[in-house]
Amino acid sequence: MNIAQHLAQTLKMQRLQRGWSLSKLAEETGVSKAMLGQIERHESSPTVATLWKIATGLNVPFSLFITPPEPGDELAFDPQQQAMVVTPVFPWDSELCFDHFSITLAPGALSESTPHEKGVIEHVVVISGTLDMWVKGVWQSLVPGEGLRFAGDLAHAYRNSGEQTVHFHSIIHYPKEKAAGKPAANHDNDS
Questions:
Q1: How far, in whole angstroms, is CA 130 from its chain's centroid?
Q2: SS3 string of the chain?
């Protein structure tokens, strides 16, 4: 099974387990009913930002959608044909409440992230290239070996304004409620 098929099946399974219609899923995630239906039918692949909105609305870790169940299956999530490629290093860990991703961002690429659920903390560490990060309304540049910790429940963005691909790691810590299988603390609608 490829990653797109896994994503489609996982989204549908998560929706059905909750007894939600596509309309209810759209309401909870801020993603249109039409787009959600296309993703479930494997007719469309969401962007990284859209998939984050879906994961946040369902209160599940992002890696749930991009970590296939079979060893050896494709791991990289690349909906934008190399603009931003996300590969799990360590998928969701329910005891430690985190995901760890290796991410590449192509020259000129910009990825804007809507706020994740309340209490999410992100750690970004640059491996190669120069990564521009927009956090709290300010752009700042990070070079190899530099990192940034920030509240992932605020809008933020990643940008590569250089001529070489940027490689960075992102560790995302989720609130304890996710580990316990409880809904995370309520927050204002971010869509």
A1: 21
A2: CCHHHHHHHHHHHHHHHHCCCHHHHHHHHCCCHHHHHHHHCCCCCCCHHHHHHHHHHHCCCCHHHHCCCCCCCCCCECCCCCCEEEEEEEEEECCCCEEEEEEEECCCCEEEECCCCCCCEEEEEEEECCEEEEECCEEEEECCCCEEEEECCCCEEEECCCCCCEEEEEEEECCHHHHCCCCCCCCCCCC
**CA 55 to CA 62: how far, in whole Å?**
5
Hey, what amino acid is at 103? Answer: I
17 contacts: CB under 8 Å, gap ≥ 6 = none
Average pLDDT by stretches of 10, the chain with 191 residues: 81 92 94 94 86 87 77 56 82 85 93 86 97 96 97 93 96 73 36 32
- C-alpha count within 13 angstroms, C-beta hemisphere, residue 79: 19
Strand order in the sheet with 84-93: 84-93, 98-105, 166-173, 121-128, 147-151
What is the sign of the dihedral through the CA atoms of 150, 32, 43 and 41? positive
β-bridge partners, 133: 140, 158
